[in-house]
Design goal:
With about 160 residues, the chain is of the alpha+beta class. The chain contains 4 helices and 5 strands.
C-alpha cells in the first residue's frame, strides 16, 4: 500500500512538471508568433537605423562635439552644469558609443524638455543612468546622468 502512495506522488510530481513545461512552450510559441507578425516592422527599423545612424569620424573631434552638444542643450534649457566628464568611447560589434557623464541643476520642466529632445530617435542618444533628487532649496532638481551617443563603426 505504501508503494502505491509513493508511486502516485512521483507520478503526480512528474505530471505537474510536464504541465509546467507544456505551458512554458505554449507561451514561447505565442511570443514567437507575435515576433513573426512584427518581423516587417523590425526589418524597417533596422534599415532606418543603418541609413540614419551617424558615422564615427575622428574620435577626438567626435567626442568633443558630443560633449558640446550635451552641454549646449542643457544651457539652452536653463540648466546649470555642476560637473561634466567625457569618458572613453566603447567600441562594439554594433558600433561605437561615446559616453558622457554630467551633473546638472535646474527646474523640472527644463530638465524634462531637455531629456525629451536629447533622446529623440534621430539623435541617437540614450540615457544609461539617471539619478534625480531635489536640491537643498527644494525649488530645483539635481540630476546625475550617464548618456551615450551611438555611431556606426567599431570593432
Amino acid at each position: 500500500m505504501g508503494g502505491n502512495f509513493y508511486g502516485y506522488q512521483w507520478l503526480a510530481s512528474k505530471q505537474a512538471s510536464l504541465d509546467l513545461t507544456r505551458a512554458q512552450l505554449r507561451a514561447d510559441q505565442a511570443e514567437a508568433e507575435v515576433d513573426l507578425q512584427k518581423a516587417d516592422v523590425w526589418a524597417k527599423r533596422k534599415a532606418w537605423i543603418q541609413a540614419q545612424e551617424p558615422v564615427l569620424g575622428e574620435e577626438g573631434d567626435t567626442k568633443a562635439k558630443v560633449l558640446e552638444y550635451v552641454l549646449k542643450g542643457a544651457r539652452d534649457h536653463h540648466l546649470e552644469i555642476l560637473e561634466q566628464t567625457l569618458n572613453d568611447s566603447q567600441p562594439g560589434v554594433a558600433g561605437t558609443r561615446i559616453n558622457v557623464s554630467i551633473k546638472i541643476k535646474g527646474g523640472m520642466e527644463g530638465l524634462c524638455q531637455w531629456l525629451s529632445e536629447l533622446q529623440k530617435p534621430e539623435r541617437f542618444y540614450a540615457i544609461s543612468l539617471l539619478s534625480l533628487k531635489a536640491d537643498q532649496d527644494q525649488k530645483s532638481m539635481v540630476a546625475t546622468l550617464q548618456l551615450f551617443r551611438y555611431f556606426k563603426g567599431g570593432s
